[in-house]
Design goal:
- This protein is of the alpha/beta class.
- The chain folds into three domains: 188 residues, Nucleotidyltransferase, domain 5 (2-Layer Sandwich); 95 residues, DNA polymerase, domain 1 (Orthogonal Bundle), CATH 1.10.150; 79 residues, DNA polymerase, domain 1 (Orthogonal Bundle).
- Helices cover 47% and strands 11% of the residues.
- The strands form two sheets. A six-stranded mixed β-sheet has the order 1-4-3-2-5-6. Strands 7-8 form a two-stranded antiparallel sheet.
- Helix 4 packs parallel to helix 6 and helix 14 crosses helix 16.
- It is flat.
């Protein structure tokens, strides 16, 4: 069993990857009590070999492996890659090109966000031993059971990749996954700039005063969480950000009266900083408030009913294509389409528009109808009668 603990060993392994078409990668990390994920182990495998890399080993420099992550000649294979990519982004090396077997499994018809063990069971006929899944990966030395579990993950992943890739190429859907991977490797997805933290939240009002305070408090929380290396929710809950932006307290007494403010918060250093952040934002709320592009189309009084019809259409089209519906469109996408035929949403772009978006617009225009055929919904074209001659 190979555990790499020195830079020399890591460099030798990375040199052996030259000429390999792909490398399967997984990570073990901890972040329950931190803002930044603590990387505890990296597993990597090709069709020929598998190793575990100990980033906590004294003196080990990950630079050789980070160069592999940036090498566009080697495809990097992950399962449910979002958090893994974030880790490598923080290390300065987004893995490109990327192939996510969870996304690929959804495109290949294996269901919504299929779990790794389920994919292995269906495609490889193997059962994954998950007994070491929630062990303390930061504790040293690692046990033989932990290393065996960790290496099995990438060994099976290296077997899954060519099977899934071939299946998608046969069905003409490899481009779907490629398009998804471009979005997943977009640096903007992993942006931790405090001033942009409000984007991850849902403002409930749209006045300049509210939005300026909302942005300021979200930025303060993000900055504080980063500095203290603590989860955002331990600094301040999301609902507190909304209440602070709504009430815009100007002093400690007003802050202390807020229901969402933690006990003792108003009199703490945090309370002082929050009040200062809100006051600074409200000096020029119009200039500081983020610009939010709300629905461009006129409000649709029947949007709720349209969304329900679009949900049925989505399910039907997903079943016809043999693909997970969540990969095609989310509820947010449907709500945007219901209100605006030119909504800026992935469901009206690329392969999604071809698979669903165009039909969604036709359904809105009355050019398609949904017909119940036994227990199955069929989508049929509406034939309009030709106008009578006068």
């Amino acid at each position: 069993m190979t555990l790499i603990t020195t830079t020399a060993e890591l460099a030798a392994f990375c040199e052996s990857l030259a000429g390999e078409p792909f490398v399967a990668v997984d990570t073990e990390f901890m972040r329950e009590t931190t803002y930044w994920p603590k990387l505890c182990l990296i597993q990597a495998a090709t069709a020929k070999a598998a190793v575990a890399i100990d980033p906590l080993a004294p003196g080990l420099d990950l630079a050789p492996f980070l160069e592999v992550m940036k090498d566009t000649r080697i495809e990097k294979v992950f399962h449910a890659a979002r958090q893994d990519v974030e880790i490598f982004y923080n290390l300065g090396a987004i893995p490109v090109p990327l192939f996510d077997t969870q996304i690929a499994g959804m495109a290949a018809g294996f269901g919504e966000q299929i779990a790794y063990d389920a994919l292995c069971r269906q495609m490889l006929k193997v059962e994954i031993d998950k007994s070491s899944r929630f062990t303390d990966w930061a504790r040293r030395p690692l046990s033989e059971a932990q290393l065996s579990y960790a290496l099995d993950d990438v060994i099976h992943l290296a077997r899954l990749f060519p099977m899934l890739r071939d299946k998608l190429e046969e069905t003409g859907r490899i481009g779907w996954v490629t398009e998804e991977m471009r979005a997943m490797t977009d640096p903007a997805l992993y942006d931790t700039e405090p001033e942009n933290a409000w984007r991850r939240l849902k403002p409930r009002r749209f006045t300049a005063k509210y939005l300026a305070a909302f942005r300021a408090v979200a930025a303060w929380r993000e900055r504080t969480a980063q500095q203290r290396d603590q989860p955002r929710g331990r600094i301040l809950k999301d609902d507190a950000i909304d209440e602070l932006a709504t009430q815009t307290p100007a002093d400690a007494d007003a802050l202390g009266r807020l229901r969402s403010a933690p006990k003792g918060f108003a009199g703490s250093r945090f309370g002082v900083e929050i009040l200062e952040a809100i006051a600074a934002a409200l000096k020029d709320p119009d200039g500081y408030a983020p610009v939010i592009d709300r629905d461009r189309g006129s409000p649709n009084p029947n949007a709720g009913a349209v969304v329900e019809l679009l949900k049925v259409l989505l399910k039907a089209r997903a079943e016809d294509a043999g693909v997970a519906s969540k990969l095609i469109a989310t509820m947010g996408d449907l709500e945007k389409i219901a209100s605006d035929d030119e909504a800026d949403t992935p469901a009206l772009q690329g392969w999604r528009r071809e698979a669903f978006g165009e039909d969604a617009l036709k359904l809105k225009r009355g050019q398609l109808a949904l017909v119940l055929d036994g227990s199955r919904v069929r989508v049929v074209e509406v034939r309009r009668a030709a106008p009578r001659a006068g």
